[in-house]
Amino acid sequence: MSGRMTMDIRPDMDSHYRNAITMESFPDEEIPRALAAAQKSVGNLGGSGHYRGDDREVTAGGPRNEMDREALVKVLALIGNRASKVNFKFRADQNLRVDVNCWMVQFKSALQSAGGNGNYYFSMGRTPLFNRDSPKISVSVEQLSSKDQHVYSSEELTSELVDCHDQENWSPVSHTYPQPQKQQVKFQRTDGEFIRLNVTIVGPRPPY
Fold it and tell me: Where is the stretch described as Disordered (predicted)?
């Protein structure tokens, strides 16, 4: 009986995130069961599936604020359990990258005050040495008000495979493996305090 390596969420996630997800080998027929359990644990507002409902900040009566590192770890666990649809919510001035086992997600702010250049960047993929296998993603991007449900802009994007120029500890001189790559979308800032991303993995993905 064949099996694939998948990720499972631990309820006692530690504060350093180093041991936040354990890798377990599930028989093929148990993979849907593992994914269903992970989706139930995380929930729609935690990043499972797509979400287009009320997304005001909590102080304005909304259901959630921007995602932090711990929330991204949980979404990456869903992806590791072979989820194809997830959602993310970032604050406009947020810069955050999380690498867990074989997956990474990164958001870069467009705001000059946060080191940006007027464009937002969202990246996702397999981490080195694996991320030349990063599957293509389609991303529905919305720039939102934090106080009401106003949507300043909405667009549908498809990722491009780009080199990880910011990848730490890699250089063509000191390493023999190819330049790491990731899937990335870029979009211009319009307005709003929050960025909501509904992501669908559309490209083929490795079975590990």
Answer: 45-65
Give CA angle at 113 (103, 94), nearest 5°.
25
Q: What is the DSSP letter of 100?
A: E
CA distance 22 to 81: 11
pLDDT in tens, 148-189: 999 999 999 999 998 876 544 444 544 555 677 899 999 999
How many angstroms separate the CA atoms of 121 and 207, rounded?
A: 27
Dist. CA 164–CA 36, nearest whole Å: 32
d(CA 110, CA 116): 4
Q: What SS3 class is residue 32?
A: helix
Contacts of 169 (CB under 8 A, 6+ apart): none
> Which residues are 170's β-sheet partners?
none
Give residue limits of the domains in the chain: 3-201
Please provide the DSSP assignment of 38-94 as one string: HHHHH-TTTTBS---S----GGGT-S-----HHHHHHHHHHHHTT-SEEEEEEETT-
Q: Which two tokens stand for residue 94?
A: 């947020």
pTM: 0.81
Stretches where the chain sits below pLDDT 50 are 1-26, 167-171, 173-174
